[in-house]
Specification:
The protein is α/β, with parallel strands linked by helices. The chain has one domain: Phosphoenolpyruvate-binding domains (TIM Barrel), CATH 3.20.20.60. Helix content is about 50%, strand content about 10%. The chain contains 12 helices and 10 strands. An 8-stranded parallel beta sheet has the order 1-10-9-8-7-4-3-2. A two-stranded antiparallel ribbon has the order 5-6. Helix 2 packs parallel to helix 4, helix 4 packs parallel to helix 5 and helix 5 runs parallel beside helix 6. The longest helix has 19 residues. It is globular, with a radius of gyration of 19 Å.
Length: about 280
């Protein structure tokens, strides 16, 4: 895909963060899941790092080699017309140059957005100044490529339970606002589900907020009312799919019956039709 096409898709993705409706992202992990979600009418897609790592035989947490992640992202972007934003964890390195290199890989794979985490591992975050430098390097790399990639800067203060509970809100706001000033388009704050905290974050953070949805999170309509601009579901759909496959395997092994994969399922013809459009019909 050429720079002009990527630029148009990046601009479409950025515009979706400005309303009028909240951007809902049902995360995908391969071409099949991407086509299913696109067919459901979503205007953009997001990948899940955990789903893509598991799909290729790795644990999440930057265990997948960067070139394999790029190939997995490319398989998704080739299969769909809508813009794709890629979860590339912390950028597969600790330096500003590694963040810039990840931007180049993401664009090379045909995606026009990316998550960039500030987590070094369990309960440890990058120094704020270093993460700011990494975001600036990512933005500069995108500018040099001529594509305004949408950077979704993630802070794991809540997800990693960093520091004392009473200090987490202020810590999160400081990081999110610093990342926004450095060039992030959206601020991803996973681990927050309490409505009162989310409402406060919307007021204090100076850019669009992305909330990670789970069973404890407010429904999409409520998040939209609060002013949240983006909601994603992470590895949830992929894990739900794995749960179904486990149920199929257990039923087949234990009972010798087939109901778990024959009842109310997509037909062979329906599945095949998802991929029948031509190779040049991807924009």
């Amino acid at each position: 895909m050429n720079a002009s096409d990527l630029r148009k898709k990046a601009e479409r993705l950025r515009a979706l963060h400005a309303g009028p409706r909240i951007l809902v992202l049902c995360n995908v992990w391969d071409a099949a899941s991407a086509r299913i979600v696109e067919e459901a009418g979503y205007p953009a897609l997001a990948t899940t790092s955990a789903g893509m790592a598991h799909m290729r035989g790795y644990a999440d947490g930057e265990n997948i080699p960067p070139e394999e992640m790029a190939a997995a992202i490319a398989a998704v972007t080739r299969a769909v017309r809508v813009p794709v934003t890629a979860d590339v964890e912390a950028g597969y390195g600790t330096t500003p140059e590694s963040a810039a290199e990840t931007v180049r890989a993401v664009l090379g794979a045909g995606a026009v957005g990316m998550n960039l985490e500030d987590s070094l591992g369990e309960r440890e975050l990058f120094d704020v100044a270093l993460q700011v430098a990494r975001i600036r390097a990512a933005r500069e790399a995108a500018e040099r490529a001529g594509v305004p990639i949408v950077i979704n800067a993630r802070t794991d203060v809540y997800l990693g339970a960093i520091g004392e509970p009473a200090e987490r809100f202020g810590h999160t706001v400081r990081r999110a606002n610093a990342y926004r000033e450095a060039g992030a388009d959206c601020l991803f704050i996973p681990g927050v589900t309490e409505a009162a905290v989310i409402e406060r974050l919307v007021k204090e953070v100076t850019g669009p907020i992305n909330i990670l949805a789970n069973a404890a999170a407010p429904p999409v309509g409520e998040l939209e009312r609060m002013g949240v601009r983006r909601v994603s579901v992470g590895s949830g759909p992929m894990r739900a799919t794995m749960t179904l496959v486990r149920a199929i395997a257990r039923e087949l092994a234990d009972q010798g019956t087939y109901s778990s994969f024959t009842r109310s399922v997509m037909t062979y013809a329906e599945a095949n039709r998802l991929f029948e459009r031509g190779q040049d019909d991807s924009l």
